[in-house]
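Treating backbone geometry as a discrete language has practical consequences that deserve illustration. The amino acid sequence and the backbone structure tokens for this protein are reproduced below.
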Amino acid sequence: MAESQIQAERHPIPYRILHLVIITSVLLLIVTGFYIHRPFIGGGGFLMSLALGVHFFAAGILIIGVVLRILAMFFGRNRDWPSFIPNGDDIKLIPQVIAHYLHLRDMPELTKKYNPLQMMAYIGAFVMAILQIITGFALLYPEGWLGFINYGIFNNEIEVRMAHYIITWLFILFLMIHLYLAIRENFLEIKVMHLMAKEEETAKE
């Protein structure tokens, strides 16, 4: 079976669409978030209003994308939750996977879609997304039902904003490493995940 067909089976069309939606929303949130934090282009109130509008819209898309992807992990014919949760056998492979990333050996044989480091990184990304959503709503509605985040878990809104800011940088770090490793390991997978592979290419065997 051709490599492109294998990648297409590992990442069904619905997952690829959700991946693209989530990545796009995250990138929009990062750019507009930095502008809201500190405007880097002059434009007065119009650009700030536009940045806020895009930020809130992208946040809504991210919420929908994350909820749908989590549901898809556990329900439907393409459910793949075991590939996100490492078990004992997966944990034992961590030293070998690290050695592979250090160019010391080939990747060990895997029984799941992802290696154990990928599993932990992706679960961490979902956790960060959820934290960003929660802290974002807490900042948007400081006196609302998530007000306890601002004045209970944290001492004030400034600390919540700082947590939101730090998680943004963690997302940037994650995306940089994710892109580098995806290019290094299998550039074809990037094409498949972002719907750039040609139909005739993925149909070959």
